[in-house]
Design goal:
heterodimer; A: alpha+beta; 18% helix; B: alpha/beta; 16 helices
């Protein structure tokens, strides 16, 4: 059975859709800005589903009015890390929320090997399962 | 990219005699409303208004051309405002955002005002992020750099200002449709700045010089300012103020409209004082809103021939 259809990482919003165009990304950012959320750009080469903290590409951007500035950062990040996962996160600081309200991938490596399941036999022939990214077998920076 | 062939085709396929409705486009954009408002609220400034009208016309024609499928490359709208203190550079810059938004040139139309401090960092590696952050904030609107010549300090070659200028230039060139940069400052200093930064000069399409106001214009400005604060001159007070302007203009540190505003602020102080000084007198609403000649004639401009305690700070824009 194929568990990773089309070899695509499906994390965050829109990840089952084809990659967003720059215009679509801008429209999503515009929505976030309209709601006064702070938008930030993050990247990683270890996209394990439990790896919540990706590296920040610069500071989160506050007080912006227009998506062009964020798109500029996204493109800079793409240029620096063309073979990393890059995502855009919009953080809502409203009391009670204080959490990312949007998060979607805007850049992926050309080849995504995906994840495998690792079975560990433990006491009493119990099986413990873990999800393992094939890419992380290689050292950081050489993964994709 | 894919539009390119279509545009080329349009030049030949769309008949030459295709009618275009410039007037309808003009009406729809509601530009006239903005221009009228500009005329009403800004006294004088002929060359400035003419240039804004020209820009508005160009953008409208571009929009019509686009409608026919002809090429309409976004014109460079970076501007440089030069002029003496108090000639309305900041005020016009603020309006510029609104005008360009109406014309559909910028998306948001907000104004971000910065000076050297906001752009240039204090240590190596600090300048680029700082400048970029400001640029990002200004995108979709207008970036107004006040006293831009301080960005470049020729006497110190290790100054980080040059780095900031480099980033500015890059964004001004590559992201023309995302933001409009307006530089402002005094004319002589600005010219020196452009001489040492030819790249900057050539990327700025519009150099607009703000003329000094005539005495009549200054009185008209004063009346407009008072109206905004719901005060008015009595007829004699207006004459006294015209006299005040005539004398004040000959003195040092005269800052056009800003001096007028300061003079009015002081006149309001004296008016309040005058009302207090006659206890028991029956005051009416008219007393509260009217500036009388004695409020103006009490100025040191008349008695000693020197400006009132106008701090030198008032000279900076």
């Amino acid at each position: 059975m194929m568990t990773n259809h089309g070899n695509r990482l499906t994390q965050g919003q829109f990840s089952f859709l084809p990659d967003l165009t720059d215009a679509e990304i801008s429209a999503q950012i515009k929505y976030a800005l309209k709601n006064n959320w702070a938008v930030s750009v993050e990247y990683t080469d270890d996209p394990h589903p439990r790896n919540t903290y990706w590296e920040m590409y610069g500071m989160p951007m506050f007080d912006l009015k227009d998506p062009a500035g964020i798109l500029m950062e996204i493109n800079n990040c793409r240029k620096t890390f063309p073979n990393h996962y890059i995502r855009v996160t919009a953080f809502d600081s409203t009391r009670g929320w204080e959490t990312p309200r949007m998060s979607y991938i805007v850049n992926r490596p050309k080849n995504e090997p995906g994840f495998g399941v690792v079975r560990q036999e433990s006491r009493g022939r119990n099986i413990r399962y873990t999800v393992h990214s094939y890419a992380t077998d290689k050292p950081e920076g050489e993964r994709y | 990219m894919s539009e390119k062939p279509d545009e080329k085709k349009a030049l030949h396929t769309v008949p030459e005699a295709t009618p275009v409705d410039l007037e309808a486009a003009f009406r729809d954009s509601q530009v006239q409303e903005v221009l009228d408002k500009l005329d009403r609220e800004l006294i004088g400034l002929r060359p400035v208004k003419t240039r804004i009208r020209e820009i508005a016309a160009l953008l409208l024609v571009d929009r019509l051309r686009k409608g026919l499928g002809l090429t309409a490359g976004a014109p460079s709208l970076h501007m440089c405002f030069t002029g003496n203190p108090g000639t309305g550079k900041t005020t016009v810059a603020m309006r510029m955002g609104e005008i360009l938004k109406r014309l559909g040139y910028v998306r948001e139309g907000h104004l971000v005002t910065v000076t050297r401090d906001d752009l240039v960092g204090q240590y190596i590696g600090h300048t680029a992020p700082k400048t970029k952050e400001v640029l990002k904030k200004a995108m979709g609107g207008v970036l107004f750099i006040d006293e831009a010549y301080y960005l470049y300090k020729p006497e110190n070659e290790r100054d980080y200002g040059a780095e900031s200028i480099e980033i500015l230039l890059q964004v001004m060139e590559n992201q023309r449709e995302d933001l409009v940069v307006i530089l402002a400052g005094y004319k002589a200093k600005m010219e020196r700045f452009f001489q040492s930064n030819p790249g900057m000069s050539s990327r700025i399409a519009h150099h607009i010089d703000f003329p000094d106001y005539t005495p009549d214009e200054l009185v008209a400005i004063a009346k407009l300012m008072l109206e905004g604060q719901q005060y008015r001159f009595s007829p004699e007070a207006e004459k006294a103020f015209a006299e005040y302007i005539a004398r004040r203009m000959k003195m040092p540190h005269f800052a056009n409209a800003r001096s007028v505003r300061n003079a009015l602020d002081r006149a309001r102080l004296r008016q309040a004082n005058r009302l207090f000084a006659k206890p028991g007198a029956k005051l009416t609403k008219k007393d509260l809103v009217t500036i009388e000649p004695e409020d103006i004639l009490a100025s040191r401009v008349f008695s000693e021939g020197v400006p009132d305690a106008e701090t030198p700070k008032a000279v900076t824009l």
